[in-house]
Structures are given as C-alpha cells and as structure tokens.
Design goal:
The protein is mainly alpha-helical. A hairpin with a 5-residue loop joins strand 1 and strand 2. The chain has a domain of about 80 residues. It starts with about 25 loop residues before the first strand and ends with a helix. Helix content is about 30%, strand content about 5%.
Length: about 140
C-alpha cells in the first residue's frame, strides 16, 4: 500500500500573500518581490542588479576633477520626470534653473514621429524612377 501524500510545512517557508500592488510608473519588480528604481543608465542598472532597490539610501561622492556625479544626478532626475514622479532639487545655488535646464530629454524613435512625405521629394523620386525605367524604342 502506498503512503498518503502528506505535505509538511517547513518553518523556513515564507508566508506569501498574493496581493497585487498597483503598478507605480518607473518601478520594476525583481527577485523576491523587491522593487527597483532605474538609475536612468541601463549599464549601471545591470551592474546594480536591476537598479536602486526601493527605499534604499544611495550616496554619490562628489569628485571635483571628474563630474560623473552630475551625470548620475541628471539621469536619475530625468528618469523620475519621465515617469511623472515628484521631484525635489535642493541646492545652495541661487538659480536652480541653471542645473535643471541641463537635464537630458527622453529619446524619441522614428516611430514616435509619423512624418508626411515632402511633396517635392515625392515628385523628385517619381521623376528619377521614370528616367530609370524608361526604355526608348
């Protein structure tokens, strides 16, 4: 006779409730339910394992000879703006627009901008093709 299938519950198993949280723009879910925020730099996100873990504290040291810290700040802030997240910029500068004006803009692809063909270009193409395809005689 076969023994009945009895599942034992280990004390090390997690009690996971299946509650779906609303998807927040800019967050990516990672392993074990960890939420990540993109740094705005794809390769840095890959090195970090998906981005900055939500709720983590990240400190970037300023280096006067290499302004990479400013690039990190700009791309991270731009990533938040693209995803409609609130943004707070605090600086001793009297004119924050000087920095905020240097934020990178989102890249747009050719599919985003459907352009109507220029009538002069179309006419020129037709004339060119007609002269190629015309065989006298």
């Amino acid at each position: 006779m076969a023994a009945p299938n009895v599942r034992s519950i280990s004390s090390f198993s997690r009690n996971i409730s299946v509650v779906s949280s609303p998807q927040i723009p800019g967050l990516k879910s990672g392993p074990n339910g960890t939420a990540f925020i993109s740094s705005g730099i794809r390769d840095l996100d890959r090195i970090l394992g998906g981005g900055y873990p939500l709720g983590s504290l990240v400190m970037v040291m300023e280096d006067p000879e290499a302004p990479h810290h400013m690039d990190l700040l700009r791309t991270f802030m731009s990533q938040g703006l693209v995803n409609n997240q609130p943004l707070l910029y605090a600086s001793p500068s009297k004119d924050p627009k000087g920095f905020l004006g240097t934020l990178p803009h989102p890249a747009s692809s050719k599919e985003d901008k459907p352009t109507a063909p220029d009538p002069d270009q179309v006419l020129l193409s037709c004339l060119y093709l007609r002269s190629i395809c015309f065989f006298p005689g």
